[in-house]
Each structure stands twice: as C-alpha cells, then as structure tokens.
Design goal:
This protein is of the alpha/beta class. The chain has 2 domains: 189 residues, Rossmann fold, CATH 3.40.50.450; 136 residues, 3-Layer(aba) Sandwich (Rossmann fold). The chain contains 12 helices and 11 strands. It has a 7-stranded mixed sheet, with helices on both faces. It has a 4-stranded parallel sheet with strand order 7-8-6-9, sandwiched between helices. The termini are far apart.
C-alpha cells in the first residue's frame, strides 16, 4: 500500500486530531502517504468547486502542533447523501483516481455505516471509534469520552457550589443521544444524587419524591443528571400532572424540555430547582491525556492493519489491549445491559438519600 485516506465524520470529539496525526505519521514510517478528506464523506464525494476544499495531502509538518487541539482540523459533517449507493460507488472511483488504496474513518455509528458500505463495494476501510457518547459496545472506549466527562464535571462542580449557597437542586442535561454512558460517568464523578437515562424507565413523581425526602433529611443541595435522550424512558403522564395546576401551565408532555422537567420537580417537591444544559461545551476543548494516548494508539493501529492487508474492521480497546472486529459488528454493538444496571445501582448506593 502506497497511499491511504483519512476522514473524521459525525459529531466531533476531542482527540480526533491526535488520531489523524497518528494515521499520518504511522503511514509515513512505512512509506505510505495520507490524503485527508474534509467534512467527512462529503470530501470523498469531491463536489466542491475547488479540490483543495475536499482533500489535502497530509505531510508530517501539516500534523505538527495538532495533538493537543480540540475539534478536528479536517472538519466534520453528517453526510446523508452517502446513504445512496451511487454516491458510494462515486466515492470509490474518486479515491482510486487519487491512488488511495484504503480509508481510515474516524467517528461513531453513522461513520461506521459509511465505512461498511465502502467495504461492501470491496474498498479497504478501517473504523476508528471517535464519539463523546462512548456508545459502541464492541470497544471499552471511544475517543473523546474522557475529555467530555472532565468538562461536564468541571461545570457541575461550579453548579454545586452555587446550589449549596442557595440550598437548591439542579437538573443538569448532558449529551449522549440514546445512551446513558456520559450521564452515568458524570453522575458518579460529580457525586450526583439522581441520574436519568434512556435505558432505564423513570418517573418525575419518583424523582420529586426523592428530592423532597432528601431535603427533609438535611440535604441542602442536590444534583440530578439528565441524559438528553432520557425523555424516551419517562413513564409519567406529564399532561395529567400539569393539568389544572396553574404553576405548571404551558408545560406539555409533547414538547417537554429539561426546564419543564425541572419546573415540575420543583412544584411537586416544594424545593427550588434550576436547569442547566451543558450542550456543546462537552464536545470541545483540549483532549485529556487519556484521549490523546488512546487516539494515537488507535490511529497507528489502523495503519498497521491496512499495511498487513487487514481491512473491513473497526479497531477498539478491550482493557488495555488493541482489538479489531468486523465493522458491521461494531456499528450495531450496544453497551452491555449488565454494565448499565451496575452503574444505575451504584448511583443509588452513593446518593446518600
Ligand atoms: O454523537 C455525539 C453527539 O454530541 C450526541 O451526544 C448528540 O446527541 C449529537 O452528537 C448532537 O449532534 P449535532 O452536532 O448534529 O447537533
């Protein structure tokens, strides 16, 4: 193999730059040059008016000073057009015309779907897990998760300070799409009393009861972590709770926001509750040491495999070991339900309510 490509796709994650750098330098150490495609699979489709806007040859110097930077310098996007077969075929033609013989795709589930479609067309691909959600069950770790948790707990520590001063509870919304990993880890690391996740049914009445009970037992501040997808496992009839209650007018089950949930908990518990959405702060920032090291290991490993003519796989970590599995298996893999239950039970044990 003389030339490979690399792209980052889907939501960005701290550590993606370290992974790109590792791909480029591991390639150069084996006499392989790397083309960086911009904006995920859009770059491979090469539809910009100028080619420079779609791809660039990545020299060793071009990846200098990137290991510590957040975001992805290749930029990223979600490319719905890539779901169409004709575009996938075009992508393979484009890459072959540039002499690209294999592609490293850094991202989450959607990215791995794109990679799997190229594999189906016989093009060598390697998936590298990069998503703050850490929602891919085949690997113990996805690039960006550690930094996202650090960012979240730094903010929650601040929120707890002000909550303590005012003797309030706080509902803090974290990212994670349909996975509770960020919420659980953030919850444990920040000493949260309650965590609501999409995987486990929960009710607003029960949460409000806990807040009331905790306050009666002398807890003057409480942190509740709300995973952004946790509305899907809510069992309460919100409209029935709000109906006829003037303090809850304007809140509806259909368009329920985290501020709406905080307000209902406040009214039902009689304790002041504030809502904060951490949002995209969790996706940005300089990667932690752990993210830099793992991203570097996974990026270099992807190139090692391509050089050995192993492809159509996703790389990952099991314990401290580098592993690979077929990319289709990786993209459909879910977090072990036993691990989810263990986390939920630990939150309950440590809550001290
Ligand atoms: O997959 C990472 C993630 O940050 C999810 O936690 C979140 O649901 C989603 O991306 C947000 O995506 P977008 O950047 O398209 O708003």
């Amino acid at each position: 193999m003389k030339r490979i490509g690399v792209l980052t796709s889907g939501g960005d994650a701290p550590g993606m730059n370290a992974a790109i750098r590792a791909v480029v330098r591991a390639g150069l150490s084996r006499g392989i040059s790397t083309i960086g495609f911009k904006r995920g699979f859009n770059g491979v489709l090469m539809r910009s008016s100028s080619n420079q806007d779609d791809f660039t040859v990545l020299t060793s110097r071009e990846v200098s000073g990137t290991v510590h930077r957040g975001g992805t310098f290749l930029m990223t996007a979600r490319c719905l057009d890539f779901l169409e077969k004709e575009n996938q075929i075009k992508a393979v033609e484009n890459m072959r015309s540039l002499g690209v013989e294999g592609l490293v795709c850094i991202g989450g589930n959607g990215t791995f779907h794109g990679a799997a479609s190229l594999k189906e067309l016989g093009f060598p691909v390697i998936g590298v897990p990069g998503t703050i959600d850490n929602d891919m069950g085949y690997t113990d770790y996805c690039i960006g998760f550690d930094t996202a948790i650090d960012t979240a707990i730094e903010n929650i520590d601040r929120i707890r300070d002000t909550c303590g001063s005012h003797e309030r509870a706080s509902l803090v919304t974290v990212m994670g799409r349909d996975c509770g990993e960020i919420a659980f880890h953030t919850g444990i690391a920040s000493g949260a009393e309650i965590v609501m996740v999409p995987e486990i049914p929960w009710s607003i009445e029960e949460v409000a009861e806990k807040v009331k009970w905790a306050a009666m037992n002398g807890k003057n501040t409480m942190i509740m972590i709300f995973a952004e997808g946790a509305g899907s496992s809510l069992t309460s009839d919100v409209d029935a709770i709000c109906e006829g209650n003037e303090s809850l007018s304007g809140i509806s089950g259909k368009y329920l926001t985290s501020s709406g949930i905080a307000r209902i908990i406040e009214v039902l518990s009689g304790q002041e509750v504030r809502a904060t959405v951490l949002g995209y702060t969790q996706r940005g920032g300089s990667p932690s040491a752990k993210d830099r090291v793992i991203a570097s290991r996974l990026g270099a490993y992807a190139v090692d495999l391509l050089a050995q003519e192993i492809s159509g796989v996703a790389v990952g970590l099991k314990g401290e070991d580098l592993i690979y599995v077929p990319v289709e298996e990786a993209m459909n893999s879910k977090i072990d339900p036993a691990a989810v239950s263990e986390m939920a039970s630990l939150i309950g044990t440590l809550a001290g309510i």
